[in-house]
Amino acid sequence: MTDDRQQHADPRPTASRRRVLATAALAPVLTGAIGAVPPARAATAEPGAEPVHTPVAPVMTELADWADVGAALGAPGGMKRFMYHTPLLRRDLHVVSRGIMINPALALGTHVSFVRYADGSSLLMGDAVVTERELQPFSDALNEHGIGQTAIHKHLLAQRPDVWWCHLHAHGTDPVAVARGLRAALDRTATPFPKAHAAFAVSPDVPLTVRFDLDTAAIDAALGVKGTADSGVYQSTFVRREAITDGHLLLPPGLGSTTSFNFQPLGRGRAAVSGDFAVIADEVQDVLTGLRRGGADLVELHHHNLNDQPRLFFVHYWAVGDAVTLARRLRPVVDATNVAPMKGTGAG
Question: How far apart are CA 237 and CA 261, in angstroms?
Answer without folding.
Answer: 6
